[in-house]
Write a structure and sequence with these properties.
The complex is a heterodimer of chains A (292) and B (349). Chain A has one domain: 3-Layer(aba) Sandwich (Rossmann fold), CATH 3.40.50. Chain A is built from eleven helices and ten strands. In chain A, strands 6-7-8-3-9-10 form a six-stranded mixed beta sheet, sandwiched between helices. In chain A, strands 2-1-4-5 form a four-stranded antiparallel beta sheet. Chain B is α/β, with parallel strands linked by helices. Chain B has a domain of 235 residues: 3-Layer(aba) Sandwich (Rossmann fold), CATH 3.40.50. Chain B has ten helices and twelve strands. In chain B, the strands form two sheets. An eight-stranded mixed beta sheet of chain B has the order 6-7-8-3-9-10-12-11, with helices on both faces. In chain B, helix 3 crosses helix 4 and helix 5 runs parallel beside helix 6. Classes of the chains: A alpha/beta (292), B alpha/beta (349).
Chain lengths: 292, 349
């Protein structure tokens, strides 16, 4: 594969239409519509995908992870068409390089399984580790990258750890196979406020020190501004604005981006009365205009 | 609509009227399995008060006891949760009532009429197989005491306050969007014009745009019916925009309390300053830090100040004794040996 030339990830005009309804009243719901994005290889970066729920962020992530097949467009990873993956070998190779991190660390782990199990399984399947010592060495290395050690995690179950620690272990698990791309779907929204920034800083470190590119899906504009290089703002399945993170969020152009930014409740607003409800609202079919 | 509480509805004087007083409240989860007893001190010595027409914010991370505190305040307690000490007194319609001393019957008279509740995750509140109209009847009809047509008329006019059309009444919950459902629960909780509303993370499940919208309406309705409110959320941005006073909880205790502006602009407790300064903001590119360590286990909390293992300012005294709440400015109380040393001890409540 010509990894040096072809981009790491090239999402080209993908679309996803879900069919809903029964046999007689079938209709399509378009979750993602004509979205393109590209991550270059060789220059790791964090791309934030921002949007409200129902805007197609998670569907896009599932398509990048090859968990859902797009109904239109192509996704290429290092030049190879992801949708065309057929053999188990190709699939394992893809999974080794592209790893997910999910929103809720409490749901991502089976409560009846010790946490080191996940690290060992990942080491065996994706990193080619053989033998107990090799498993442990790889798991320990990955845990050190997130500020933990195998001694702290070994034999422990999900309920024994805090959400922040669990999310770190989820990240460590993703790192076991030395991926080149991590797709993180709302990774900090379930993590306690005092631990949230340490997870966010960890993503920064992964990019800067390990050279991992990250697709960071969020609805939180402030953390996106803090860590990402580029942003893509989605509304109802469409990409409405994209570009350099700070340029876009400092000075959004699209009406939806402006609306999103204006709805961010900042702690700096303390002492100022909140602007009247409705001022930041898009015209909506079910609102009555009898505000006052 | 007829006046809800004839004596209190006219209280607009400068002297604030107390609606809720919580004194040294302790609520523990006690379990005993196979001879091993365990005690989780989820709320451990909390005192606070809420005035009429005031929104009191309660912030803190998960498992700090904020939900247990409000459960205890509304007496929604079930084993293993048990109130070990302290009191919760409501002052409704000119009468003081200790909610934990009331009989079930008296409690029924207070619930929804004087004291209502907005829960986290509105989809769990509305019965999925009943239309919204029936939910209103289930929740509120008996408390309002009017014949059905008049009651429904009142509900319709109340719905317009949260900008929902009367047609919403005929919908099933799944036909409404998350924001609309949350507005329905706000309307449900306020239709009886209660004196006191407890809102537990009312907008956490909503999107930013919808969240701002819903919070604005919640505040509008609250101002209009002049009720008091406790608003629980971990989001400091929400508190800054909505609440009048703010209490910060850490590991079952209140560590700082004051006017929201003072607490956010001039935080005195190291935990509060961390919460406020670590928040990323648009336009701010400085490095932010997470707090080291993990939230404490409340079954075996740290000795002394519960924050000391994670505190950058901790001294020897912090490991030994829990600091008392000390006034640092009018209405601004902090429990910290370092930033608020009790030179001239002020006994508070």
């Amino acid at each position: 594969m010509s990894a040096a030339v072809s981009p790491l990830l090239d999402v080209d005009r993908v679309g996803m239409t879900y069919a809903v309804g029964g046999l007689l009243r079938r209709r399509g719901v378009t979750a993602v519509d004509d979205v393109s994005l590209r991550l270059e290889s060789g220059s790791p970066e964090i791309l934030a995908i921002i949007g409200e729920s129902g805007s197609g962020k998670t569907t896009l992530a599932r398509m990048i992870l090859n968990l859902a097949k797009p109904t239109a467009g192509t996704i290429r990873f290092r030049g190879a068409d992801v949708i065309a993956i057929r053999s188990i070998r190709q699939r394992m190779d893809f999974m080794r390089q592209v790893q997910p991190i999910f929103q809720n660390p409490f749901e991502a782990f089976n409560p009846l399984k010790a946490l080191d199990h996940y690290l060992f399984i990942s080491a065996r399947r994706f990193a080619g580790a053989r033998g107990r010592d090799d498993f442990e060495a790889r798991a320990d290395k990955a845990l050190h990258q997130v500020g933990l050690s195998l001694a702290e995690v070994k034999g422990r179950y999900p309920h024994e750890l805090s959400g922040g620690q669990l999310q770190r272990i989820a990240i460590a698990r993703a790192l076991v196979s030395s991926p080149s791309l991590i797709v993180a779907d709302e990774p900090v929204s379930m993590v306690d406020a005092s631990l949230r920034m340490s997870i966010v800083n960890l993503f920064k470190a992964l990019r800067d020190e390990l050279g991992v590119s990250i697709v960071y899906i969020t609805h939180d504009l402030a953390t996106a501004y803090y860590i990402s290089n580029r942003v893509l703002i989605m509304q109802r399945g469409k990409a409405v604005e994209s570009g350099d993170a700070r340029a876009v969020l400092d000075n959004p152009q699209h009406p939806y981006s402006i609306l999103l930014k204006s709805a961010v409740l900042s702690p700096d607003d303390a002492g100022r009365p909140m602007s009247r409800a409705g001022s930041a609202r898009p015209p909506s079919a079910h609102s009555i205009s009898n505000a006052e | 609509m007829s006046a809800a509480a004839p004596t209190s509805a006219v209280a607009t004087s400068a002297v604030p009227e107390r609606v809720l007083t919580v004194r040294d409240l302790r609520a523990y989860y006690r379990t005993k399995y196979f001879g091993i007893s365990r005690e989780v001190r989820a709320v451990d010595g909390v005192s606070l008060h809420v005035d009429r027409n005031e929104i009191y914010g309660l912030a803190g991370e998960s498992s700090c006891g904020k939900t247990t505190l409000i459960k205890t305040i509304v007496r929604a307690i079930r084993p293993p949760l048990d109130v070990v000490g302290g009191s919760v007194t409501f002052h409704f319609a000119g009468r003081d009532r200790d909610i934990h001393a009331l009989s079930e019957r008296e409690l029924e008279g207070i619930r929804w009429r004087h004291l209502s509740y907005i829960l986290q995750g509105s989809m769990n509140v509305l019965n999925p197989v009943r239309r919204v109209r029936q939910s209103f009847v289930d929740f509120a009809h008996r408390h309002i005491g009017k014949p059905m047509p008049e009651f429904l008329h009142q509900v319709e006019s109340h719905l317009s306050r949260v900008r929902l059309e009367p047609a919403t009444l005929d919908a099933y919950p799944h036909e409404l969007s998350g924001g609309m459902r949350q507005r329905v629960t706000i309307a449900l909780a306020t239709v009886c014009r209660p004196d006191f509303i407890v809102a537990d993370e009312p907008t956490t499940a909503l999107d930013v745009v919808v969240q701002k919208d819903v919070l604005g309406m919640l505040r509008e309705v609250q101002q209009e019916i002049r009720s008091s409110m406790i608003l629980v959320t971990h989001d400091i941005g929400v508190h800054a925009n909505v609440t009048d006073r703010l209490g910060i909880m850490y590991a079952g205790r209140l560590v700082e309390e004051g006017r929201t502006v003072d607490v956010i602009r001039d935080p005195r407790h190291p935990y509060t300053s961390h919460l406020v300064t670590s928040l990323p903001r648009i336009g701010d590119v400085t490095q932010k830090r997470g707090l080291d360590g993990a939230p404490p286990n409340l079954a075996a909390p740290p000795t002394g100040c519960r924050f000391h293992p994670r505190c950058p300012l901790a001294m020897a005294a912090c490991r030994v004794e829990h600091p008392p709440m000390v006034d640092v400015a009018p209405g601004h109380r902090v429990a910290c040996w370092v930033t608020a040393p009790p030179d001239k001890p002020v006994a508070l409540q």
